[in-house]
Structures are given as C-alpha cells and as structure tokens.
Amino acid sequence: MSIKVGFLAACMVTSLIATSALAADEPGVTPTEIKIGGIFPFSGPASSIGLVGKGVMAYVQSINDRGGINGRRINYIAMDDAYSPPKAVEHARKLVESDEVSFIFSQLGTPGNSATAKYLKAKGVLSIAIVSGSSKFTDIAEYPLTTTGLVSYQTEGRIYAKYLDKALPGAKYAILFQNDDLGKDYVNAFKSFLKGDYEKRVVTAAYEVTEPTVDSQVVNLKSSGAEALFIAGTPKFAAQAIRKAAEIGWKANIIINFPSGSIGGTLKPAGLENSTGVIVGTINKDPTDARWNDDEGVRAFKAFFAKYLQGADFENTSYLTGYMQGMILEGILRQCGDDLSRKNIVKQAKSLSHLVLPTAFPGIEVNTSDSSNMIWGQMQLQRWNGSRWEPFGEVLDASSE
C-alpha cells in the first residue's frame, strides 16, 4: 500500500514538474498569468482609432476582475507607436525580447503591422486579430501566424463599388485614399470590380498621413465632376474631407471606410449636418442608437463602459471595437483550455465557428478556419440621417460582392 502511495505521489510530483516546465517553455505563460502585447496609435494622426486599444485594455481588466481565464490573469502590455512604422518595430522588439510576451494581440494599423510582420514571423510570435484589413494579411501561406480583425479592405471596397454601380450606374466616382497599403487596397478593389471601365469612371487623389489637411485634394476631386466620393483612410482625414466637401458645396454621395465609421471620431469633427447622407459598412450595432436600448448586448456594453471607461467619449465606437476584440481574445483563450502553447493558440484562433458577439449586427458572426484567417467577413451598410445611422439592404459578405 505504501509503495502504491509513494508511486502515486512520485507521479504527481513528476506531473507538476512537467507542467511547470511546459509553462516555462512557453514565453509569457506561468501558472497564474499570460503576458500579451499590443501596439496602438494612442497619439499621432490616427489617435482616434487608437482608442480601440483603450477598449481592449478595459475589457482585459474586466476579465481579470472576474478572476481571469482558467486561473490565469492577463498581463496586457499596450504600447503607443503614434502610427509610425519604425516605432512599431521598436515596440515589437521590446515586447518580444524584453517583456517576453506570449503573442501580440490586436496591433492596430496597416503601416505598423506591415513593418513588424517579418520580424514577428521570424521570431515565431503570433499576431492575432490585427486591426488591419489589408488583403495581404489574409494570405495564410505568407502569414501563417496571423489572423485579421477587420473585413478585408478588398472585400469592403468591392461592396462599396457594387453599391455605387447600382445607385449611380455609369457615373464617375472620386476616391481619396491614404497613400499606403490601406488606401491602395480599396483602390484595387474598385479596379477589380469595374475592370475596363475603371479608368474612365474613377478619379483618385492620394494623401500622406504626415500632411496637415486634405483640403486641396478634395477641391481637385470636385473639379472632376464626380458624383460620388469614397474616402479610404483614417478618421482625422475622413472628417476633414467631409467638412471640406460641404464647405465648397460638393453634393457628392459620400462613402467612408469602416475604420472611419465613428460618430465621435469622424462625423462630429466633420459636423453632423455636413455628414448627412454619409454611408459606411459596419459589423456592429450602434450603441448610441435608441433602437438598441432594450438590446441585452448593448445594455451590457453600456454598463461595461460606465464602469471601465468612465469619462470617455461614448460616441467614439473605437471603444466598442476594442470591447469586441476583447471578447474575441477571451473566446480564444477559453478554447485553449490549459494548453497555452503558441501552436494551440493559433490553432484556436483559426477555429472560431459561428461565434456571435452580443454587440455584432444581427446576422453577422465570427468564423475562422485553416483556410480563412479573417475574423469578420460580413458587413451591413448604413446611412447617416443627421442624428443616427439608418441600416439599409441585407448583410453582405464576400459572396455578395
């Protein structure tokens, strides 16, 4: 009997040692904590969407207040790259080599993600739910350790091109785009949809994120006689373009991209009246809209916001995006169970099936797989009526293009 007890005790000790060794072998993972990194433009020209990071941080705090996940608290280290690729690289190196994070979650910005991708891949560090819709990141062979947290700009752009082709058949369109992968993806989406008609129906103007305004580009685009203006950039410049179009009396049909679809971040700075008629695709319910007052998911978000983001601008839906990103992080980690190896984390990140977040627009769900690393693949078009967003049409996806 004593031999059996001794044997069992020895097995238990061996198991504990093995478990400790396993945790020690996985960077950023201990029996009580998992360390995760994030990089956001908390300052600089894209600071409005950098607030996504504040939403993620607040949601992580709520997870920890609930006792963490599987007995582990999340140590989320978020750094500010000011939308500067060199700073993003500097921060990625610190997070990996000094802080020894398990993985990077929700890094925001196409320029920064583009700059850090090669380094993270070489180090074998996962980059999960990146806040970029750049189509290149959906190439699983090239980015095997990455999943994306936005509908790809190619898919989103083709949805807008198809809408305009139906709403304004044969008309000329103007595109104001950020001169990087973000803006160019949207332009390429219009090219792929319009094909041979692109050159005669589309006029474009690019801007650099270092420019103070895009006023001159908007004036030049108006002179083209275009009936529609699509703005593919970030909130600061989208707001400037909407405001300038109103100032010069350009009555164009205006579409903005999802990253600029915030009332507080884009429409208010542009002027709510100036923004009347603006269209955007969305993945989420608008928590400021009274139509969702009795919705359980929106009510939960409002309670969360009051507790963890007190004093912040509720109309800036970048916080909601961060909240939803936090839910995705929680879902992935819960699916991982006690196996927090990088191999299992990326496996679970690519195994999200029919996940419905309570603040997602009805009919929109999360699905990932070995062949699709895009967390979101559907959108609902909506139009600003001067006081709230009015959804119209059906939920669209890649097959609806």
CATH level-two architecture of the largest domain: 3-Layer(aba) Sandwich
Write the element-wise H/E pattern from the N-terminal end onward: HEEHEHEHEEHEHHEHEHEHEHHHEEE
Portion of residues in beta strands equals 15-25%
* Nearest-integer average pLDDT: 93
What's the Cα radius of gyration? Answer: 23 Å
What is the 3D shape?
A: globular
Secondary structure: number of strands: 14
Write a short abstract of this structure.
It contains 13 helices and 14 strands.
Can you tell me about this structure?
With 401 residues, the chain is of the alpha/beta class. The protein has 2 domains: 32-151 and 297-370, Rossmann fold; 154-282 and 381-400, Response regulator (Rossmann fold), CATH 3.40.50. Helix content is 43%, strand content 16%. The protein has 13 helices and 14 strands. It has helices at 2-25, 47-65, 85-98, 110-123, 153-167, 181-194, 198-201, 215-222, 235-247, 263-270, 296-308, 318-336, 342-349; strands at residues 29-30, 33-40, 73-80, 103-105, 127-130, 146-148, 173-178, 202-207, 228-232, 253-256, 279-282, 378-384, 389-391, 396-397. Helix 2 (47-65) crosses helix 12. The longest helix is centred in the first third of the chain and has 24 residues, at 2-25. It is globular and about 65 Å long. It starts with a helix and ends with a strand.
